[in-house]
Recover the amino acids of this structure.
């Protein structure tokens, strides 16, 4: 039944994952995962530690090549593309930008510069242009700075623009990663545990921020998160993963009532 | 806070080093020049000694500094040259061309007019144009590249050692005519000295048509094991090994050949005719042939030079010591005979005046090679090099 | 408390000197001759060693303590402080006149100093450019290249061979050298860029050795170890000139090339490409995930570094008029790397200072004759210990934001 | 076939020399991830210490085998002390410095130590006494292997096995593995990282000394500059075998030795190093973590 619905919605999809499996040697980290993200949707992927969530992210962003299955992206303009095995930077250029579970900023660059890196694939100055610094280059450079600064404003870091990113507080680093991803003009934002290590108030702010970003940039969001309160109130749909399989999917309410999910989570997650 | 300041001061000091260094140097220079300009022939005669004095080739360059010091000391004891005290000014080039040009410009800037050096042919080639332009007479104890003198490009260059072509011919001639070997393996150490010698020898053998070159290969100097190349020599059926290079590799090859039960003739060059070779190769050195300048057993200067070194430094002299000693004698003698350090007069004196040196009674021909350095072949017998031809 | 501290350091120094005396005892004191079976004892050396190391250890301890205290203090502060020196240097009010003054001094240099001074300064300037080139590869893009000197050799041989066979002049070959460098950079870059960290280091080291060995052995092509001599100096409208004038001429050529290189690297550093390199250095995975083509960025850094090295090779061949493979050993690569790290990775000013230090120090240490390399090695260790991030720390550009436009 | 075997054993002998130096190298390298240029110098100092002890004892007229034993012991002790001191001076203060800083201080240390030996001893080559006696039963194989070759091969294997056991089963060995994998983590679980690194240097330097004495006796001559080439070869062998892998260092050394030997035998010794490095490049392109190194998936 659910299968049919998804197929009908094809024109209305930004990401479709079909039957994706990932083996590391003999270990099956993902098996036959199906997942869809529709335009403007916030989809959450939850599951106990080690369930394969981050591996799934790595599979759809080109860091790993899935052993089996098809990952298709539907950019706002242009044709749908099969992206499994595609190089990471091309996936990003296509419009799928991610953050990392263990923050991966560029520590000895300033916050602003971190965001400017996100603009790289949307600009084109070459070596010669950079050396000669003609009017075109200068215009582009100014555009990069302005746009990046705008992104920083969106995540509330404009005051810290010229600080080295290694000196930013933890929460700010997480937000900076989101700003960096946004700067690549994605249609799909992949957030890997954005609220990890945040206190309830920060988490609430983050939630509001994600909602704002979705409205403003018209992006879809795929989110891995452990904070159930945030997941339940933010997501439109939830996928639950255990041992590399999707064991349940549906609206937050449906999922939270699924006996399989309750069994998987019982006593295992404090946030639940 | 304090540490910050120290760091800052350190930083400034390092940054300012260039300026300070230059300033300081400059002052010293003017001081050094000042008396010379007032009275050109007043106090001292500076003898530059350029060559590898640090780095892995230092052992070839340091003995010539000692040689120059000893000759200078002896002459100074007799009242100097033309009333000037001889002062030795060592200049390190590590056998690197770029450092050799630095050393050369430094010597030229210090108004040195006679130089012993450089040690390596490559460094010498790089430095010579600078000396030539400044009319400095240069005499190398060890640069054997044929073209240095034979090309005629450097009229200011002289040497007390014979060049590759002569050495190669001598070694090849000896092997084919005296040892009567038919299949010769020519091995070299890929260096400019060793390969130059090996190529000359190879050409001489091929031109002679009596024997054949069955193998021509370069080995990697500094290696711990040459068994592969030795097996190759064996497989080629060679009855003689002709080696171009220095003694460390030669002793390793000879030792390993003997370990593998190969007892064919081993003929090598002046770089091997060194007592260190006999020490390092030990009993395996027995029977090895090496070409070298003829040093008559009763050469008094040679004996004296050796004894002086033993007395002054408490050790045996190293490589190219005799040649450097000869060079120092020849240069200083020429200055004495010329009566000044005037370039043309010194060159003329070098070409006309004979002098007794450890390498024989020598003067120099028009191209700059020493006349009177006869070439001989030596063989190690009972732990000593003995003349065979 | 100060007195107690001094006593503590004195004690430390005493222990250190006893330890070092023990350590150096056999090598400093005993000389053996295994052939003659004699042993020479030189006890005086031990005394010098003990006294010398006592003084040095005392100073060492005091400075190390200061450094650590400074670092501990820095660790407590969240905002990074900038040293007075670099603050001074980065303040445009001082930096501009300072730069102008520096340039003036540089331009007038050959008229006031001897040919020797000019000559070694030309060498130093060559290494400034080499350092800046390697700084792109190592300092900015974070690719540890231990075979950088190979590209230097490519340039030098390009000029030497073209000059020998076809009598092409310096100015004609200079651009060709650049092209050859870029070509080799890309050629060697392709297979190795998949590798990371030290694996990349060893492979580049291997390539560096291979190029040198080929030059050494392929006599028919490169004239082998005897090298190529009588390479033409740069032409000057057909005028012949003396070696001294040549040095001055060479100096101005180099000065121009240095200014050009500084200009190019400074512009690149704060450009789109430069930021991509930096991101690459900091985190390869994140860099690629943010849409940067790592392979392209790496190749660009490799090729650009190679181009500069090759250019310098051409200049080097013209300057020394003689080249052989002995000038392109691994040690040379290590020296250029040392310039970059010692000066401060990624910092243009740092690299310039580093090049001056490492190239001029051995020259000014000539007075110490045989001890100079000993002192040189010790200095390298000392600078690294007391200034691990290099003489000048690289700083990122501070962007002024036009808030109205952005808001 | 005869020729092939000769080359094979030649390569084995040469490779085991590389392996012996690489064993110490890979330990230090595995733990602090520093291309320790001074390791070659410690090897050289080990050889000099062996020579000095041998010289003194020969002058006193001791028998050869006991000289070898004592020379080995003294040389190991002294080289370990040198390794320890070098670490304290040049690397320990740089524990938290940028990654390349210790590399440069290592280069500086290498220059310093070379010149120290050159000045304190001699720039010339010194003959190294043949401390390893020729065993009679080896005569039959003299065409393939000498006694000293045999000695070095056996020593390399013994050291490799001993080290493997040490790393696997002792407390210190476990602490070393922990430090190699994640220094911060090891510190958190109570490993005294300073001590572990010192111990690594002491062991690595001791192995270098064993190599120095045996190889010195094998080759028959030493000078102050022998450490440089040895260091490069050991580094190559260690990387070829897989950084930090003890059997890998031996395998890497042997593969390097064979590559050089066969290249000389079948092509030309002019290009033996070229072949060795080409092999290295090819192997690393197909196995980026070396022959026996763990091919880890990227952790994201």
């Amino acid at each position: 039944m659910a299968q049919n619905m998804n197929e009908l919605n094809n024109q209305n999809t930004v990401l479709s994952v079909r039957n994706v499996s990932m083996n590391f040697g003999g270990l099956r980290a993902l098996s036959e995962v199906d997942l869809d993200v529709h335009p403007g949707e916030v989809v959450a992927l939850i599951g106990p530690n080690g369930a394969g969530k981050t591996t799934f992210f790595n599979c759809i962003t080109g860091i790993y090549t899935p052993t089996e299955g098809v990952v298709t992206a539907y950019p706002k303009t242009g044709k749908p593309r099969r992206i499994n095995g595609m190089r990471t930077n091309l996936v990003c250029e296509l419009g799928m930008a991610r953050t990392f579970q263990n923050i991966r900023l560029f520590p000895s660059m300033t916050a602003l510069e971190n965001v400017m890196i996100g603009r790289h694939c949307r600009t084109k100055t070459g070596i010669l242009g950079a050396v000669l610094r003609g009017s075109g280059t200068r215009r582009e450079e100014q555009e990069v700075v302005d746009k990046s600064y705008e992104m920083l404003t969106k995540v509330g870091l404009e005051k810290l623009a010229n600080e080295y990113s290694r000196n930013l507080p933890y929460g700010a680093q997480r937000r900076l990663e989101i700003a960096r991803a946004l700067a690549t003009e994605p249609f799909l934002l992949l957030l890997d545990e954005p609220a990890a290590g945040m206190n309830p108030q920060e988490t609430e702010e983050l939630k509001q921020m994600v909602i704002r970003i979705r409205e403003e940039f018209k992006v879809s969001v795929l989110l891995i998160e452990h904070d159930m309160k945030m997941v339940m109130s933010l997501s439109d749909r939830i996928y639950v993963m255990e041992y590399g399989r999707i064991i349940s999917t549906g609206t937050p309410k449906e999922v939270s009532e699924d006996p399989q999910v309750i069994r998987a989570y019982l006593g295992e997650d404090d946030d639940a | 806070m304090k540490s910050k300041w120290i760091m800052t001061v350190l930083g400034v000091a390092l940054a300012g080093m260039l300026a300070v260094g230059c300033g300081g140097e400059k002052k010293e220079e003017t001081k050094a020049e000042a008396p010379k300009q007032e009275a050109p022939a007043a106090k001292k005669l500076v003898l530059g000694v350029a060559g590898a004095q640090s780095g892995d080739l230092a052992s070839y360059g340091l003995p010539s500094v000692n040689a120059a010091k000893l000759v200078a000391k002896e002459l100074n004891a007799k009242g100097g040259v033309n009333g000037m005290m001889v002062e030795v000014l060592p200049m390190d080039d590590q056998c690197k061309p770029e450092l050799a040009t630095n050393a050369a410009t430094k010597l030229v800037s210090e108004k040195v007019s006679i130089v012993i050096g450089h040690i390596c042919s490559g460094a010498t080639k790089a430095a010579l144009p600078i000396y030539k332009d400044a009319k400095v007479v240069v005499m190398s104890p060890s640069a054997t590249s044929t073209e240095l003198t034979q090309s005629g490009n450097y009229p200011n260059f002289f040497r007390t050692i014979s060049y590759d072509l002569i050495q190669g011919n001598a070694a090849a001639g000896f092997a084919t005519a005296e040892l009567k070997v038919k299949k010769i393996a020519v091995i070299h150490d890929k260096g400019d000295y060793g390969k130059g010698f090996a190529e000359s020898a190879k050409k001489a053998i091929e031109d002679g048509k009596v024997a054949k070159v069955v193998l021509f290969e370069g080995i990697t100097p500094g290696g711990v094991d040459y068994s592969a190349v030795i097996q190759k020599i064996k497989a080629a059926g060679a009855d003689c090994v002709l080696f171009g290079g220095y003694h460390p590799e030669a002793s390793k090859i000879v030792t390993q050949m003997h370990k593998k039960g190969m007892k064919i003739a081993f003929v090598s060059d002046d770089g091997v005719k060194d007592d260190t070779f006999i020490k390092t190769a030990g009993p395996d050195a027995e029977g090895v042939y090496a070409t070298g300048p003829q040093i008559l057993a009763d050469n008094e200067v040679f004996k004296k030079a050796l004894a002086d070194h033993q007395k002054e430094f408490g050790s045996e002299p190293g490589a190219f010591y005799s040649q450097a000693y000869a060079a120092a004698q020849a240069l200083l003698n020429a200055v004495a005979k010329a009566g000044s350090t005037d370039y043309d007069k010194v060159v003329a004196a070098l070409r006309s005046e004979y002098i007794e040196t450890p390498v024989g009674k020598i003067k120099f021909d028009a191209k700059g090679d020493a006349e009177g350095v006869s070439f001989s072949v030596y063989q190690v017998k009972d732990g000593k090099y003995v003349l065979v031809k | 408390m100060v007195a107690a501290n001094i006593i503590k350091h004195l004690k430390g120094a005493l222990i250190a000197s006893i330890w070092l005396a023990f350590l150096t005892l056999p090598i400093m004191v005993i000389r053996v001759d295994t052939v003659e079976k004699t042993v020479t004892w030189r006890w005086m050396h031990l005394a010098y060693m003990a006294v010398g190391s006592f003084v040095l250890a005392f100073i060492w301890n005091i400075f190390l303590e200061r450094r650590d205290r400074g670092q501990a203090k820095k660790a407590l502060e969240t905002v990074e402080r900038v040293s007075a020196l670099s603050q001074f240097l980065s303040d445009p009010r001082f930096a501009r006149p300072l730069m102008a003054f520096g340039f003036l001094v540089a331009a007038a240099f050959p008229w006031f100093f001897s040919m020797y001074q000019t000559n070694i300064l030309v060498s130093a300037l060559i290494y400034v450019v080499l350092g800046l080139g390697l700084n792109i590869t190592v300092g900015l893009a974070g690719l540890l290249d231990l075979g950088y000197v190979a590209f230097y050799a490519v340039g030098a041989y390009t000029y030497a061979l073209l000059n020998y066979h076809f009598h092409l002049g310096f100015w004609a070959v200079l651009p060709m050298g650049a092209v050859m460098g870029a070509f080799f950079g890309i050629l060697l870059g392709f297979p190795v860029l998949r590798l990371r960290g030290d694996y990349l280091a060893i492979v580049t080291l291997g390539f560096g050795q291979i190029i040198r060995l080929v030059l050494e052995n392929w006599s028919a092509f490169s004239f082998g170890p005897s090298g190529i001599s009588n390479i033409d100096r740069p032409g000057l409208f057909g005028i012949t000139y003396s070696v001294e004038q040549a040095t001055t001429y060479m100096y101005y050529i180099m000065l121009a090339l240095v200014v050009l290189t500084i200009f190019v690297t400074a512009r690149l550093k704060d450009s789109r490409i430069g930021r991509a390199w930096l991101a690459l250095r900091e985190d390869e995975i994140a860099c690629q995930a943010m849409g940067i083509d790592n392979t392209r960025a790496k190749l660009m850094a490799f090729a650009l570094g190679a181009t500069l090295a090759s250019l310098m090779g051409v200049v080097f061949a013209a300057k020394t008029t003689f080249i052989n493979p002995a000038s392109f050993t691994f040690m040379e690569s290590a020296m250029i790397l040392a310039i970059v790290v010692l000066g401060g990775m990624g910092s243009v000013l740092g690299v310039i200072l580093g090049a001056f230090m490492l190239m001029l120090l051995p020259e000014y240490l000539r007075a110490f004759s045989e001890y100079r390399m000993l002192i040189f090695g010790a200095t390298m260790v000392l600078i690294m210990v007391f200034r691990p991030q290099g003489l000048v720390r690289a700083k990122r550009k501070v962007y002024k934001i036009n808030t109205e436009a952005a808001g | 076939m005869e020729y092939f075997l000769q080359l094979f054993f030649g390569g084995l002998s040469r490779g085991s020399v590389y392996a012996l130096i690489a064993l110490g190298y890979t330990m230090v390298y595995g733990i602090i991830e520093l291309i320790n240029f001074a390791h070659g110098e410690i090897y050289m100092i080990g050889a000099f210490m062996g020579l000095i002890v041998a010289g003194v004892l020969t002058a006193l007229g001791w028998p050869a085998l006991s000289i070898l034993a004592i020379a080995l012991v003294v040389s190991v002790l002294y080289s370990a002390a040198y390794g320890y001191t070098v670490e304290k001076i040049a690397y320990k203060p740089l524990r938290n410095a940028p990654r390349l800083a210790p590399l440069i201080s290592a280069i500086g240390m290498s220059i310093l130590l070379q010149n120290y030996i050159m000045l304190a001893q001699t720039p010339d080559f010194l003959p190294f006494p043949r401390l390893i006696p020729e065993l009679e039963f080896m005569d039959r194989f003299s065409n393939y292997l000498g006694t000293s070759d045999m000695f070095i091969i056996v020593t390399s294997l013994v050291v490799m096995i001993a080290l493997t056991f040490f790393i696997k089963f002792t407390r210190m060995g476990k602490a070393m593995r922990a430090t190699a994998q994640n220094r911060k983590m090891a510190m958190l679980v109570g490993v005294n990282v300073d001590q572990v690194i010192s111990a690594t240097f002491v062991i690595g330097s001791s192995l270098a000394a064993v190599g120095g004495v045996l190889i010195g006796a094998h080759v028959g001559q030493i000078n102050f500059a022998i450490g440089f080439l040895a260091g490069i070869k050991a580094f190559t062998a260690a990387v070829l075998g897989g950084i930090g892998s003890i059997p890998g260092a031996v395998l890497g050394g042997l593969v390097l030795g064979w590559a050089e030997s066969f290249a000389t035998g079948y092509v030309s010794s002019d290009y033996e190093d070229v072949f060795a490095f080409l092999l290295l490049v090819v192997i690393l392109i197909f196995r980026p973590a070396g022959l026996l190194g763990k091919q880890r998936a990227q952790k994201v």
Chain A touches chain D at residues 24, 54, 58, 63-64, 100 (CB under 8 Å). Residues 135-154 of chain A form the longest helix (20 residues).
